[in-house]
C-alpha cells in the first residue's frame, strides 16, 4: 500500500505563497494554499482553501493535517504593526497544537540601518522603526518557541521581491509597466547604491528547501539572492531589454508618486532608509548548506518582463 505524500500548507496567496505552492507541487508534495477567499487561478497539484488565519479558529482549520506550514501572510504597510503579531499568535498556537513544522517568510527589517554593511545571518538586529522593531520581536518569539521545544521553526529572510506576479514592490508594478509603455518610472532614493533584490522563484525554492530539511530549523537563513548591483545598473539592464531609455523620475524622499500613494508612502517613510544606504544581502550560507544558486539577474529580468508583457496584454 502506498502512503499519500505529506501535506504542506502555505498560508498567504500573494506572489510568494502562490509561487511557493507551485514549487512544492512540482517537488511532489501535496499542497494546500490558504487565504481568506480560497479562490484564484488553478495551480496544478494545489488545493485552495479559505480561512482567516488571524483568528485562532481559522488558523487551526488552515493547518489541520499539515506536516509543514509556510507562513507567507502579509498585510498592508499601515496595518502591519497592529495585525502581524495577532497572526503570529494564531499561527503559532495552531502549529503547536497540530505538531507541524513552521517555515516563516521573513524580511530584512530586524537589522535596521546597516550603513551599507553587507547583511549576513550574523548581522545584529538594530531596528528602530516601528515595523522593524515589530518584526524583530516576532522573530525573537519564533526562535524562543523553537528553543523551548514548543514548535519547530525556521525563518527565511528575503530582500525586496522581483519577478513574475510581483506587483507591490519597489522593483515591481511601479517599474515594469512604465518601462514597457514609456511611462514615468519612479526610482527611490539613491539609485547609485547597491541594492539586493530576491527573485520570487528563489524565495519559493529557498522556503521549499527549508521545508524539506528539518536540520536547518531553529535559525534564520537568507534566501538565495543574486549579487547586488546598483538600482541604476538594474534599470539600465531593463532599458537594454525594452530597447529605449527609461523615463526615470528620482524620488529622493518619501513622498507620493505614481502607484506609491499617500497612504502607502506615509507608512513606508520610516523604511525609506533602505533606499538611502546600500542594501546588500549575503545568501552564501543557504547556498553552501543546500546546494542552491540564485537566479542570475539577467534571467530574472527576462522572466519578469515576459510576465508583465502578458499581464498588460490581458488587461
UniProtKB/TrEMBL annotation:
Location of the NAD-dependent epimerase/dehydratase domain: 12-217
InterPro entries associated with the record: Epimerase_deHydtase, NAD(P)-bd_dom_sf, NAD(P)-dependent_oxidoreduct
PANTHER family the UniProt entry points to: NAD(P)-BINDING DOMAIN-CONTAINING PROTEIN-RELATED, PROTEIN YEEZ
Protein name, UniProt field: NAD-dependent epimerase/dehydratase family protein
Amino acid at each position: 500500500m502506498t502512503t499519500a505524500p505529506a501535506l504542506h500548507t502555505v498560508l498567504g496567496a500573494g506572489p510568494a505563497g502562490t509561487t511557493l505552492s507551485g514549487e512544492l507541487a512540482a517537488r511532489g508534495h501535496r499542497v494546500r494554499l490558504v487565504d481568506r477567499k480560497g479562490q484564484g487561478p488553478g495551480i496544478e497539484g494545489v488545493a485552495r482553501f479559505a480561512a482567516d488565519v488571524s483568528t485562532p479558529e481559522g488558523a487551526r482549520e488552515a493547518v489541520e493535517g499539515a506536516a509543514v506550514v509556510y507562513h507567507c501572510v502579509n498585510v498592508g504597510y499601515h496595518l502591519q504593526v497592529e495585525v502581524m503579531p495577532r497572526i503570529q499568535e494564531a499561527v503559532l498556537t495552531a502549529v503547536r497544537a497540530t505538531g507541524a513544522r513552521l517555515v516563516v517568510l521573513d524580511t530584512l527589517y530586524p537589522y535596521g540601518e546597516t550603513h551599507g554593511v553587507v547583511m549576513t545571518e550574523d548581522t545584529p538586529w538594530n531596528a528602530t522603526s516601528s515595523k522593524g522593531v515589530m518584526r524583530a520581536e516576532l522573530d525573537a518569539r519564533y526562535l524562543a518557541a523553537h528553543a523551548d521545544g514548543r514548535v519547530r521553526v525556521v525563518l527565511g529572510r528575503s530582500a525586496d521581491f522581483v519577478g513574475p506576479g510581483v506587483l507591490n514592490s519597489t522593483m515591481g508594478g511601479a517599474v515594469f509597466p512604465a518601462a514597457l509603455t514609456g511611462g514615468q518610472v519612479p526610482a527611490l532614493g539613491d539609485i547609485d547604491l547597491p541594492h539586493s533584490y530576491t527573485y520570487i522563484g528563489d524565495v519559493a525554492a529557498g522556503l521549499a528547501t527549508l521545508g524539506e530539511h528539518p536540520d536547518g530549523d531553529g535559525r534564520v537563513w537568507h534566501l538565495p539572492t543574486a549579487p547586488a548591483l546598483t538600482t541604476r545598473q538594474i534599470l539600465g539592464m531593463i532599458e537594454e531589454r525594452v530597447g529605449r531609455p527609461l523615463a526615470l523620475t528620482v524620488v529622493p524622499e518619501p513622498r507620493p508618486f505614481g502607484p506609491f500613494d499617500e497612504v502607502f508612502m506615509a507608512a513606508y517613510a520610516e523604511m525609506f532608509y533602505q533606499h538611502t544606504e546600500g542594501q546588500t544581502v549575503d545568501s552564501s550560507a543557504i547556498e553552501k548548506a543546500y546546494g542552491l544558486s540564485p537566479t542570475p539577474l539577467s534571467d530574472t529580468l527576462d522572466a519578469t518582463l515576459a510576465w508583465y508583457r502578458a499581464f498588460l496584454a490581458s488587461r
